[in-house]
């Protein structure tokens, strides 16, 4: 039997990681909130504590993780890599703790739905990866409830919902039964033909959006209001829209030079390999759409495990835009 004295000296062991668990949690909170104030609220610490923690994390890893802009924080390439791996590392660590504490625990099953179809572009692959990494958490996609995820959640037809605009019921019963929290964000990008006059510009402006038809899918009213408010504030410009029911039609209309396609980075990513399309951002900075996760309190344990696995799982398009 080995004795403590037989163990290798610390200098002979593998190098100790520089990053700490709190650094991973911080990166995910900043990514979800987009500001130090939002991350502070989510982590229940002060904004100055968030700023200090970020500076320490960047010093430990030796790379800048977020760029500070007038609109908040944007992950750098290094930050994106950290965010992509942080959620799964935390999920696996928590799963290890559960296996140690209760090795014979049964598999937990949850039903999940997304309010916006764009997440289904990558979520099935994320779920397959999740099954391999967290075999005791089984997630079923309940796509039949996509049109009314909040109602399905309130009725108990599903356990977890990923939301962009839908608001939970404000009744006392709902507040007692349901929980919601920030999860992550995706970027809404603008796609044009490489022959379009805007293709050669580094970015596009609000005026460009006023002067060209905007090509979209059949966007829900709440999401359309979010876009208008986020981009134009209190202004209510008259915009020309071309609506198509399928993403392929939206992309093909942009390819044909009919206007500017407006869609999630998740949807745009699969259509950019042909060299005939260009991705643009607003000159004022990335247009980020916040996502929230809502779940029934009875499913809190499984939902929190799911949160840790999903944070950072969404694909990104940052270095391909411009």
From TrEMBL:
Record's protein name: LysR family transcriptional regulator
Entry GO MF terms: DNA-binding transcription factor activity; transcription cis-regulatory region binding
Q: Which PROSITE patterns match?
A: HTH_LYSR
Q: Does the keyword NADP apply?
A: no
Q: Which domain of life is it from?
A: Bacteria
The family annotation for this protein states: Belongs to the LysR transcriptional regulatory family.
HTH lysR-type domain residues are: 19-76
For this UniProt record, give its keywords in alphabetical order, as a comma-separated list.
Answer: DNA-binding, Transcription, Transcription regulation
């Amino acid at each position: 039997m080995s004795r403590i004295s037989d163990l290798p000296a610390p200098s002979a062991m593998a190098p100790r990681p520089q990053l700490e668990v709190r650094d991973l949690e911080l990166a995910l909170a900043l990514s979800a909130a987009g500001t130090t104030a939002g991350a502070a609220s989510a982590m229940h610490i002060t904004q100055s504590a968030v700023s200090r923690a970020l500076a320490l994390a960047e010093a430990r890893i030796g790379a800048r993780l977020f760029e500070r802009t007038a609109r908040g924080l944007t992950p750098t390439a290094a930050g994106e890599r950290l965010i992509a791996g942080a959620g799964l590392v935390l999920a696996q660590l928590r799963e290890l703790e559960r296996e140690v504490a209760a090795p014979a625990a049964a598999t937990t099953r949850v039903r999940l739905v997304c309010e916006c179809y764009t997440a289904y572009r990558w979520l099935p692959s994320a779920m397959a990866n999740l099954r391999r990494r967290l075999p005791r958490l089984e997630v079923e996609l309940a796509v039949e409830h996509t049109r009314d995820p909040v109602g399905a959640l309130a009725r108990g037809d599903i356990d977890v919902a990923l939301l962009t605009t839908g608001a939970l019921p404000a009744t006392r019963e709902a507040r007692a039964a349901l929980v919601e929290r920030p999860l992550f964000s995706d970027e809404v990008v603008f796609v044009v033909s490489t022959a379009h006059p805007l293709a050669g510009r580094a970015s596009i402006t609000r005026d460009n959006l006023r002067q060209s038809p905007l090509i979209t899918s059949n966007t829900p009213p709440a999401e359309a209001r979010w876009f208008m408010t986020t981009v134009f504030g209190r202004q209510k410009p008259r915009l020309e829209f071309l609506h198509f029911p399928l993403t392929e039609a939206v992309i093909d209309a942009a390819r044909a030079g009919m206007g500017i396609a407006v869609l999630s980075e998740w949807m745009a990513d699969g259509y950019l390999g042909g060299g005939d399309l260009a991705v643009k951002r607003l000159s004022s900075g990335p247009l980020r759409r916040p996502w929230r996760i809502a779940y029934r309190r009875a499913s809190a344990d499984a939902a929190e495990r799911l949160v840790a696995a999903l944070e950072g799982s969404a694909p990104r398009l940052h270095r391909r835009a411009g």
